[in-house]
Amino acid sequence: MSKISVLFVCLGNICRSPAAEAIFINLLEKKGLTDDFIVDSAGTGSWHIGKKADSRMRNAAEIRDIQILSRARQISDKDFEDFNYIITMDNSNYENVIHLKKKKSLSEFALIRKLQDFRSIFKDEEVPDPYFGGDEGFNYVLDILEDSVGGFLENIS
Ligand code: 4NP
Questions:
Q1: How far apart are CA 82 and CA 93, in angstroms?
Q2: Over its length of 157 residues, how does the chain's per-residue pLDDT go in tens digits?
Q3: 157 inside domain
Q4: Within a domain: residue 15?
Q5: Would the CB of 129 count as within 6 Å of ligand 1?
Q6: Residue 43 Cα to ligand 1 middle (Å)
Q7: Whose CA is nearest to atom 9 of ligand 1?
Q8: What is the dihedral of CA 136, 142, 148, 153, to 10 degrees?
Q9: 129 is catalytic
Q10: Is 54 among the domain residues?
């Protein structure tokens, strides 16, 4: 069986999408599905390339026994042909990814979806950007991500 590849995308790739990636990896481990998937994350912006995830997000995740290990990178043209799924965190990320694909006539291979399409408990239609807010925002984002990432896995498996 070929692996299913998933790329989580936000703006900076230091808060929401690396957390979504880590939560998804954690869930796959719990379900014994690690070997069936390739998981990565990226940002539409380039400001934080090479950086670790925001320490506030890493700390909030650590309390839940989730390690965020990724380094920020920007989404690339090749991602559109390499990944089965490109999963965006908010409407702006979604529009940016769709715009990038159209503008550069990139591969139609990746299925581009909004993570909140897979929510069940939370009503939020977007994963809110916690970057400019307080610590509680990071915890709230993790709650939302645990809900929707679980829904996403159920939807595709
Ligand atoms: P993220 O959060 O998109 O969830 O990684 C942000 C991180 C950095 C910035 C904005 C959002 N920034 O403006 O630098």
A1: 19
A2: 799 999 999 999 999 999 999 999 999 999 999 999 999 999 999 999 999 999 999 999 999 999 999 999 999 999 999 999 999 999 999 999 999 999 999 999 999 999 999 999 999 999 999 999 999 999 999 999 999 999 999 999 8
A3: no
A4: yes
A5: yes
A6: 9
A7: 12
A8: 180
A9: yes
A10: yes
